[in-house]
């Protein structure tokens, strides 16, 4: 499963882990990706989306129809 939000496009970031002795090693900051099902009334079916926590809040705010329009405008399949 790719760690990428279909709505916001957020993906893993990379940085350094710093120990107590201040040695630096590489690490990866993964986004909080959740698989969520929504009913799409215009098509009469459910869609399964991989969204970050912020993406879920965005869907709650703008609605599933507008969110699917944004995802399709980015060229992603829903």
TrEMBL record:
Keyword terms: Ribonucleoprotein, Ribosomal protein
InterPro entries: Bacterial_rp_bL28, Ribosomal_bL28, Ribosomal_bL28/bL31-like_sf, Ribosomal_bL28_bact-type, Ribosomal_bL28_sf
Presence of keyword Ribosomal protein: yes
KW Lipid biosynthesis (keyword) present: no
GO cellular component: ribosome
SUPFAM superfamilies assigned: L28p-like
Pfam families associated with the record: Ribosomal_L28
Coiled coil region boundaries: none
Family in the record: Belongs to the bacterial ribosomal protein bL28 family.
Protein name: Large ribosomal subunit protein bL28
Gene behind this protein: rpmB_2
């Amino acid at each position: 499963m790719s760690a990428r939000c279909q709505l916001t496009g957020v993906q893993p970031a990379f940085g350094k882990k710093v120990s107590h002795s201040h040695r630096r090693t590489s690490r990866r900051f993964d986004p909080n990706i959740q698989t969520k099902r929504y009913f799409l009334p215009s098509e009469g079916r459910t869609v399964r989306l991989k969204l970050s926590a912020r993406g879920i809040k965005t869907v709650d705010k703008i609605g599933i129809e507008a969110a699917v329009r944004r995802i399709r405008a980015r060229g992603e399949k829903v």
